């Protein structure tokens, strides 16, 4: 360990965590997150607002939007529109959050790899980068192949990166630090989500994941954004505060 800290402008909130607050008051929620200390956000759900409106809310709060989650179906259904919206938001990355259940096989992941290659070129042409967000089931080994690794190995690095969800990597039986070492530069964004002793979600810093050790290889992994996420916080604002402070105080 050293005295390295996460850059202040790299600590963000993935807004799925705050969906109840966003549904009630989107602009007010962004202002409160900025008051806590967050500098960036990842968009997940618009709650009836346009991309232009959300960009205005973020600008007014002093937050930078770095990415938006866009369903896999959009790859063939108005992908250009999805890319245009991410550009309107001011984001760098367009993120596919999961694959349809019917694609969770080696053949399905190869189909997705081909689709990501095409979509990744269009994203690159638009000045953006396509990322994929993992869940635990993506690390299943089927017929001797780890499904997630098919995407890592079969799509060119300049066409597909990853928003690595640290909780789900561990849940899937793998170690994030190994991916950072083995696939340099592929992981510009993280979901920093902690794991309680019973395996459920926990506020960052209160669970059992060793983020300090993981992050010793974050530079190798190409990490630029550490986005807090909790899928089901008991108190979303307490979770946001605790998680922010844990990342701000972390030495690795």
TrEMBL record:
PANTHER family: HYDROXYPYRUVATE ISOMERASE, INOSOSE DEHYDRATASE
Tagged with keyword Isomerase: yes
Biological source species: Kribbella amoyensis
A single GO molecular function term of this UniProt record: isomerase activity
Domain of life where this protein originates: Bacteria
Gene3D superfamilies per record: Divalent-metal-dependent TIM barrel enzymes
Lineage, uppermost ranks: Bacteria, Bacillati, Actinomycetota, Actinomycetes, Propionibacteriales
The name this protein goes by in its record: Sugar phosphate isomerase/epimerase
Entry keywords, A to Z: Isomerase
Domain Xylose isomerase-like TIM barrel span(s) in chain numbering: 30-236
């Amino acid at each position: 360990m050293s005295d390295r800290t996460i850059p202040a402008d790299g600590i963000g909130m993935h807004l799925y965590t705050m969906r109840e607050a966003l549904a009630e008051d989107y602009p007010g929620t962004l202002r409160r997150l900025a008051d806590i200390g967050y500098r960036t956000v990842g968009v997940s759900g618009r709650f009836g607002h346009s991309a232009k409106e959300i960009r205005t809310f973020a600008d007014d709060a002093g937050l930078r939007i770095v990415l938006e989650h866009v369903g896999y179906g959009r790859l063939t259904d108005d992908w250009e529109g999805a890319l245009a919206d991410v550009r309107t938001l001011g984001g760098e990355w367009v993120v596919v959050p999961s694959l349809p259940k019917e694609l969770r096989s080696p053949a399905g992941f190869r189909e997705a790899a081909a689709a990501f290659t095409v979509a990744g070129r269009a994203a690159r042409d638009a000045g953006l980068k396509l990322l994929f967000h993992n869940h635990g089931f993506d690390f299943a080994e089927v017929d001797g192949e780890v499904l997630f690794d098919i995407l890592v190995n079969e799509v060119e690095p300049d066409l597909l990166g990853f928003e690595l969800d640290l909780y789900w990597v561990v849940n899937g039986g793998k170690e994030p630090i190994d991916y950072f070492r083995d696939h340099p530069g592929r992981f510009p964004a993280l979901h920093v989500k902690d794991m309680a002793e019973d395996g459920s979600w926990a506020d960052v810093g209160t669970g059992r994941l060793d983020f300090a050790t993981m992050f010793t290889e974050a530079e190798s992994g190409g990490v630029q954004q550490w986005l807090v996420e909790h899928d089901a916080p008991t108190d979303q604002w307490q979770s946001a505060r605790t998680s922010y402070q844990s990342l701000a105080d972390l030495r690795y």
